[in-house]
Amino acid sequence: MLRSKLPDVGLTIFSVMTKLSNDYNAINLSQGFLDVDVHSDLLNLVNKYMHSGHNQYAPMQGVLILREMIADKARELYSAVYDPVSEITVTSGATEALFAAIASVVHQGDEVIVLEPAFDSYVPAIELNGGIPIYVKFRFPEYRVDWDEVKQAVTSQTRLIILNSPHNPTGAVWSGDDITALKHIVKDTEILI
Ligand SMILES: Cc1ncc(COP(=O)(O)O)c(C=O)c1O
User: Fold this and answer.
1) Ligand 1 proximity of 164 Cβ (cutoff 6 Å)
2) pTM to 2 decimal places
3) What is d(CA 132, CA 136) in angstroms, rounded to the nearest whole number?
4) What is the average per-residue pLDDT within 154-164?
5) Which of 28, 90, 95, 98 to mutate to test the pocket of ligand 1 (most atoms within 8 A of CB)?
6) Domains in the chain: ranges and CATH
């Protein structure tokens, strides 16, 4: 008999919504399935590079040329400068990246502030790593963050604050004032964002 480490986690909302949309032949806005074919150029290029030897294990942190492209993109889009050799890791999606990041920094008993509603992979990752999720709710109807509440939620055990903008599922976008408020809260602490 397998004993679940996350007995309270049921089916993910994506499985629920995708089943409903299949059952009712509805448009599935929950998971971003496309109803157009992958462009044939892309399929041909994948085929071409697989045939020319690019079909083995990639380095753990990802193929260097891809990491260099990601660094270029971050610079162009966000003026953020990252070293592709030491500061970029390729993962197979955000869920894996988030799990790896949370597992790397959260130790037994560390508190992690989660702004609710939150993407559903955060809390299982926190709990599997011995962390304690501390919830702060967005303010309805604009889903703004109440920074006083975040400040009150911070303790000497706070290790991490997880944020997401534009926010899924509310669509709220953080303002410059939000970022300034957050900076004040984490100033002179060891809290990671
Ligand atoms: C806020 C947020 N985090 C994580 C994920 C998971 O991303 P992935 O499907 O790349 O694992 C999503 C996907 O929609 C998301 O919206």
Assistant:
1) yes
2) 0.88
3) 13
4) 97
5) 95
6) 58-90 (no CATH), 92-193 (3.40.640.10)
